[in-house]
Design a protein that fits this description.
heterodimer, A: 259 residues, alpha+beta, two-stranded antiparallel sheet, 7 helices, B: 199 residues, seven-stranded mixed sheet, 9 strands, globular
Chain lengths: 259, 199
Amino acid sequence: MRRLAATLMVLLPIAGIAGGVTASRYVGLPGGTFRSALQYEDAKAGVRIAPFALMREPVTNAQFLAFVTKHPQWRRDRVASVFAESRYLSHWRSATELGPAALPQQPVTWVSWFAADAYCQSIGARLPTWSQWEYAAAADETRRDARQDPAWRERILAWYSRPSNTALPRTGLQTPNAYGVQDLHGLVWEWTDDYSALLVSGDNRNQGDADTAKFCGAGALSMDDRENYAVLMRVAMLSSLEGADATANLGFRCARSAK
Amino acid sequence: MKPAILKFLTIAALAASAASPAAPGAAKTATPLPSDSVYQLPLPLTDQDGRTADWRQRRGKPQLVSMFYTSCQYICPLIVDSGKAIERQLTPTQQKRVGIVLISMDPARDNPAALRSVVDKRKLDTQRWTLAAPPVADVRAAAGVLGVRYRQLADGEFNHTSALVLLDADGRVLARTEKMGSRPDPEFVEAVRRAASAP
């Protein structure tokens, strides 16, 4: 299957030229050195980001329905429980119908990491890494790195204080950021490929036993940028999840190598 | 000549079953995999002898599974210690009924020679122990079903959580422990004993 995905990755640029839809679903981001809000002991000079392509919008219910129709092992009534918990796609009317609680243009939520990963692989892509996501999400509408602007931070934080029991807006309503990516803030949380790489030191859920060696190597991550609560919340959330987990506000988008 | 042919046939059979994830372990058992089995994930593993087989081939026998990498200085030797310590608390019959698999999170460096060097250095009996590496692209998913978290550092080392996971014969998680070292968690040892005593 991986080999198939690799083959598709090679073929996709050609397909992209043939069909404009495939090409416009992604936007290319330039590479660069990026200062993460996370304090990486091993990368004090910054994280190097290679050029990559990211989906402009999160994956929608309609797109995910097309995926489970084509790959029925990911239907909620057929998925292996090791890959998705019982609430997986529980807001859909049935295993193959969206219904009123899951409109076609809303971002898909209630998806596990394994399902999100399988979706991306099925179209010759993968989930973005945390660094890629954070890099893309540092931009506002005009600047590639707006993170030092208190007004921008306030705007993002305002989203987190909104009640989460209201229906999700559709994707693509927000103004694209400086890279042309939409909805990175203010719509849903998003899975990253390396969600389980975020070993945050504040995470002491499993440290009751003094003999338990939670981390091997150079120790856990800590926050370098204590003002950046929005990023902190994302990291805390991802670091608390297992791969089969699904939540009402957690979706995803895919990434692939730059053409 | 005959053994050589047999060996070839075995490899061919393994390769065939590894290449058809639609029919996992079909040669071994006809019953479908339980929904909560980690073997739902196809995972080709290349071991210390350079043999590649999907981990579903291990179905039929309880397994003690952990993740490690060979160049690890700190916790990973403790993972081997833990496995050995648990083995010592089993009877010889029980020992034969449990497989031990250490899966590398560093396939780029953990080729069969690197894995073999740990087997030799730690004097591991490959009748019971398997050290193996999956393809690079499969490591995160393998860690996902085993509940292991890791991050590769800029220098190639890893931060990671350490866990020993006990699987039943069908790949369902029976017990797990994050207590490493030569004095294993008694409850976990008891779970291994029970699994190794089941008919």
